[in-house]
Design brief:
The chain is α+β, with helices and mostly antiparallel strands. Among the domains are: about 190 residues, Biosynthetic peptidoglycan transglycosylase-like (Penicillin binding protein transpeptidase fold), CATH 1.10.3810; about 260 residues, Beta-lactamase (3-Layer(aba) Sandwich); about 60 residues, 2-Layer Sandwich (Trypsin Inhibitor V, Chain A), CATH 3.30.10.20. About 40% of the residues lie in helices and about 10% in strands. It is elongated, with a radius of gyration of 38 Å. Pfam families: PASTA, Transgly, Transpeptidase. One of its GO terms (molecular function) is serine-type D-Ala-D-Ala carboxypeptidase activity.
């Protein structure tokens, strides 16, 4: 067999270019009957011998003892024919970088390994030259194995001098690739085992990969894969960690230092005293290699060698606890939990976390830094972080579901059990046991819910769901109900203060006795009249109200509440639901009202607006997930009534009464919303929305929902509407669309004039006109005779089928059935 037919013998006689070898082997191939290429049987034996020689030579050079034992011969007998068609490598883990909505401000990084792949074009030429000079000077001349290097190693290793290796840069890349492709610990150990078998396999695979990749492709992959110490992998991470520079900005001395680390990252550690000395010597040695290869001049080498090490050694942030500023941590945690819930990133949460920490994604989140800063500022100035009560605010964009801010009066951090800084739980039994509360430090998802956080009661903000259900069932906004001071409902099973006297019936009352009287939806929603909405819920069915809440994003995390919501029959008995007794979160409440601002289009809350994989491909999982859950006109009508509580004007001029009239004046945009209070003021809530942003806040005690402390609207309300005002500053005002008149007024019917008629006659006239008739049980001054009707409310025109209240004259009237 001549030298020209054996790549190994060619390599021993001259520098190997890789071209003649590929051509030599390729020329021996022929196509069999199945269409596959194979090596002709006539030429098989010489090639087997050639493969054997390759194995023996490599093992002899790198591991002389192995060659003597015969192991190299055994391994070398595996010919080139048995090599894989191509080297298949699993992509090495890369850090995922997460940005705020501007796409430029880093929010967080997630990484098992500090690595980020970059194209070779983004690496300074001097860095490329330095790694070649340090690791494989013949890189651009050999075909994967360096014959001269093998010869040098053979001579050195058999002369008793320091043992040299013969691994080329390509062989090193093969070894790293096999390591990262390993799926179990044994395979990882085998990939780096110091044996001749491994060396031979690397040599064979190196030759194969040189046929399939260009030199620059190999170098790029090597630079992105190599470990550079201190938890950094790849040239991007190394240049950032050691010098806070992009790889394209590295200078001569910096490139030489980084190139010198690959040989032994633990030994050449510039962050330790001994390692710094070794690193300096190693860097200067690399500079000398660069000079010898002509990469730099003698003068440049001398200047670089005279310089001292200026290493930063700053690890990039990793995970949500490292988010800066700290209050971004709550949003970061929301994003993290969202990611773990996405099937697009794996079957199990473990798989999804691995993808997050190793997939090299570029994520642009929905976090708006300006809105977030306003939310945190308005929260922090009203309630200190060390307060047991939590003031929690969320902002979301109507029509997209993009979460723009999440803030709380808490430090996003873990409390150290060995040296706790958190106060004792506000819950007395827990406090007596020494159990700490979640203030001022917590990583619990208190703003968004999840885990053990079911949420908090949001009070009368839930009345919007009853209003929507009524509109869907042909009750227009002008539908009237006589709202008494205390209403004896049809619901049973009540106890304590919620029960009627000497009864188990549910008897809600208003916050103020002055709220009693005839109301329509505009006035009842504006003044938050409980005794209007409970009977309205009776008319439309509580199960329908619960269904509306679910369609607007209320999730019912508490098991007992979920059981009620899932059973329509049981839900129909949920009398207090309209008053907001179900646990929810600021984010859910904000999104419910945002859905109305988007004309009934519900969007799943999302923390992302763009996700690209490591190759730059845009992933559809970031697209808004929206669906029309409420009729557009119904949504517009409900929102028209919701303008009343916050001091705005209904499109029909019907607002009278407001629980927080300052909102419209401060926000200076058309706005809708609602306040909410629960029994004994255990929570206080508010929501306000414009066409482009909804903000909600809840003041509660996450550690003790049954707190005896009274939560104040003076704290939560301004935190909400001033956050909204700051976020809306500079934006063009957008008015809410006017709803259809039929949803506002329905079919209007004239109320018969029954003035001075007897109660019986007046009742007959009104019921004959289709109205529900109620008699006011208190005397009314009038010029009519005693015990006759002084007038009605409403009078003139009103909704067909609505309630008309007759007022009776005279002190002797005792009431009529």
């Amino acid at each position: 067999m001549s030298s020209r037919n054996c790549p190994w013998r060619v390599a021993l006689s001259r520098d190997v270019t890789g071209v003649s070898d590929a051509e030599t082997i390729s020329s021996r191939k022929q196509t069999n009957s199945s269409g596959k290429q194979t090596i002709s049987s006539r030429k098989r034996s010489p090639l087997l011998v050639c493969g054997l020689l390759a194995g023996v030579a490599v093992a002899a050079a790198a591991f002389p003892a192995v060659a003597v034992s015969g192991l190299a011969v055994k391994a070398g007998a595996e010919t080139f024919e048995g090599l894989p068609g191509e080297l298949t490598t699993k992509q090495a883990p890369q850090a995922t970088e997460v940005y705020t909505s501007d796409g430029e401000t880093l929010l967080a990084r997630f990484a098992d390994e500090n690595r980020r792949d970059v194209p070779l074009a983004d690496v300074a030429p001097i860095m490329r030259q330095a790694i070649v000079a340090a690791e494989d000077r013949a890189f651009y001349r050999h075909n994967g194995i360096d014959a001269k290097g093998i010869a040098r190693a053979f001579v050195a290793n058999n002369s008793g001098s320091l043992q040299q290796g013969a691994s080329t840069l390509t062989m090193q890349f093969v070894r790293m690739s096999i390591t990262y492709a390993a799926t179990d610990p044994a395979a990882i150990v085998a990939a780096s085992e110091d044996t001749g078998v491994r060396k031979i396999r690397e040599a064979r695979l190196a030759i194969q990969i040189e046929k399939r990749l260009s030199k620059d492709e190999i170098l790029e992959r090597y630079l992105n894969l190599a470990p550079f110490g201190n938890g950094t992998y790849g040239i991007y991470a190394a240049s950032q960690f050691y010098f806070r520079k992009q790889p394209h900005a590295l200078g001569i001395d910096e490139a030489a230092m980084i190139a010198g680390l690959v040989k032994s990252p633990s030994e050449f550690n510039p962050l330790t005293e001994d390692g710094a000395r070794a690193t300096l010597q190693r860097r200067n040695w690399v500079l000398e290699q660069m000079r010898e290869t002509g990469v730099i001049t003698l003068e440049e080498a001398a200047a670089a060698q005279a310089s001292t090490l200026h290493v930063r050694g700053e690890a990039p942030p990793n995970g949500c606890l490292a988010a800066r500023p700290n209050h971004w941590g709550f949003f970061c945690d929301y994003f993290y939990r969202w990611w773990l819930a996405q099937p697009a990133f794996g079957i199990t949460t473990y798989d999804r976390e691995r993808r997050l920490k190793g997939g090299g994604y570029r994520v642009v989140t929905t976090l708006d830094a300006r809105t977030q800063a306003a939310a945190r500022r308005n929260v922090h100035t009203r309630l200190r972080d060390a307060d047991p009560a939590a003031l929690m605010v969320a902002a979301i964009e109507p029509g997209t579901g993009r979460v723009r801010a999440l803030a709380a009066n808490r430090t996003f951090a873990l409390d150290n059990p060995a040296a706790p800084r958190n106060g004792l739980s506000a819950n007395p039994p827990k406090a007596r046991k020494g159990i700490r509360g979640s203030y001022p430090r917590t990583t619990n998802p208190i703003v968004t819910g999840g885990g053990d956080i079911a949420g908090y009661q949001a009070g009368s903000t839930f009345k919007i769901f009853t209003l929507i259900a009524a509109l869907q069932n042909a009750y227009p906004l002008d539908y009237t109900i006589n709202a008494p001071r205390i209403y004896q409902s049809k619901y049973t099973g009540a106890s304590g203060a919620a029960a009627c006297p000497h009864s188990r019936r549910y008897c809600p009352r208003n916050a103020d006795d002055g709220m009693a009287g005839v109301h329509n939806a505009w006035t009842a929603f504006g003044s938050s009249v409980n005794t209007y909405f409970v009977p309205l819920q009776e008319r439309v069915g509580a199960a329908n109200v619960v269904d509306v809440a679910r369609r607007l994003g209320i999730t019912f995390r508490a098991p007992k509440e979920a059981a009620l919501a899932d059973d329509p029959q049981a839900a129909n008995g949920w009398g207090a639901f309209t008053l907001g007794v179900s646990a929810t979160t600021p984010l859910e409440v904000a999104n419910a009202y945002a859905t109305l601002a988007a004309d009934g289009r519900f969007c799943q809350p999302t923390p992302v607006q763009e996700i690209r994989d490591s190759r730059g491909a845009d992933l559809p999982v970031a697209a808004p997930a929206c669906v029309q859950t409420i009729n557009r006109e119904v949504a517009r009508a409900a929102l028209d009534a919701a303008r009343c509580p916050v001091g705005d004007k209904s499109a029909f001029g019907e607002c009278r009464g407001a629980t927080e009239p300052r909102v419209r004046r401060v926000v200076r945009h058309p706005v809708a919303g609602k306040t909410g209070t629960t029994d004994r003021d255990r929570t206080a809530a508010m929501v306000a929305t414009t066409r482009s942003l909804a903000v909600a806040g809840i003041l509660a005690d996450p550690d003790w929902p049954e707190t005896t402390r009274k939560m104040s609207h003076r704290i939560v309300n301004p935190a909400v509407y001033r956050t909204l005002a700051a976020a809306m500053a500079g934006r063009r005002p957008q008015d809410f669309p006017r709803p259809e008149p039929r949803l506002a007024y329905g079919d209007q019917v004239a109320v018969p004039d029954v003035t001075c008629k007897s109660v019986a006659e007046a009742t007959a006239l009104l019921t004959g006109a289709g109205f529900q008739v109620e008699v006011e049980a208190r005397p009314v001054p009038s010029g009519c005779p005693a015990n006759t009707v002084a007038g009605t409310e409403p009078s003139g025109w009103t909704v067909a089928g609505g309630v008309v209240v007759m007022r009776v004259v005279g002190p002797t009237y005792g009431g009529y059935p």
